[in-house]
Amino acid sequence: MSLGLIESIDVLNRRLLEYYGRFENGEQNWKLFWSEDFLEKKLCNETENGILLLTPEIRTVKKVNYIQNKYVLTKLVAVPERNRAELLGAKTSYEPMWTFEDLAKNPIIPDWGGIKAIIDTALENFLNAKHKAPEQMPEFMHQTEEARRDRVEKIMEQFYGNESSITDSLALDSGVGYGVRKRNDWLH
Predict the structure, then answer these.
(1) Separation CA 21–CA 134 (nearest Å)
(2) Full residue range of the structural domain in which residue 160 is found
(3) Contact 97, 74 (CB under 8 A)
(4) CB atoms within 10 A of CB 32
């Protein structure tokens, strides 16, 4: 959280609308919700206790029951055709993109700087995901004698780079040294 002024969630949601606009259906692209108020109407086949119903019923349920008492940054996305029946024909849905919590899972207050950084990073990743990385020929395909020798040298360096007669003697307990050696690996 920044040391600046704490803005209300309404102000942050208005700012999200100004900066990141609306989806093609007119709804806001990005929105902040309090997890306990993040609800959706859904066609349910069972009760909250898991008992199967004879006929499905429409219920308002928590969208993210695995997040409690925290702010959630969401993105409006198109609902795939196969999932629309469960969401009563809804063509869009707000999906969680970020939960405002610290490393110890304690809730934190969202601030504009953090929100903007999260969204800008996500948008950049969405854009980059559409571009295919340039293909490179795998190293083992370079079958020249020199390429094979370089590859073998790299492997040998990785496995045996720190080997010498001194380190081997110390590791095998055949070396002579001064002082008391405190070693516990013989217990394992």
Answers:
(1) 33
(2) 138-171
(3) yes
(4) 19
pLDDT (tens digit, 0 to 9) for every residue of the chain, 188 residues total? 444 457 889 999 999 999 999 988 889 999 999 988 877 777 788 887 888 888 888 888 888 888 899 999 999 988 787 665 566 667 788 889 999 998 888 999 998 989 999 999 888 887 777 666 555 555 555 567 777 777 777 766 665 556 666 666 665 566 666 666 665 555 54
Q: 145 and 99 share a domain?
A: no
Same domain, yes or no, for 41 and 117? yes
**184 within some domain:** no
76/162 same-domain check: no
The SS3 assignment for 108 reads coil
Is there a domain that residue 180 lies in? no
At which residue do the structure tokens 């081997």 appear?
Answer: 168
The residue type found at 107 is P
Please identify which residue in the block is written with the tokens 């020249």. 144
What total number of domains does the chain contain?
2
Does 88 share its domain with 155? Answer: no
Bin 15: left if φ > 0, else alpha if -120 < ψ < 50, else beta.
alpha
Name the strand (E) or helix (H) holding 95: strand 92-99
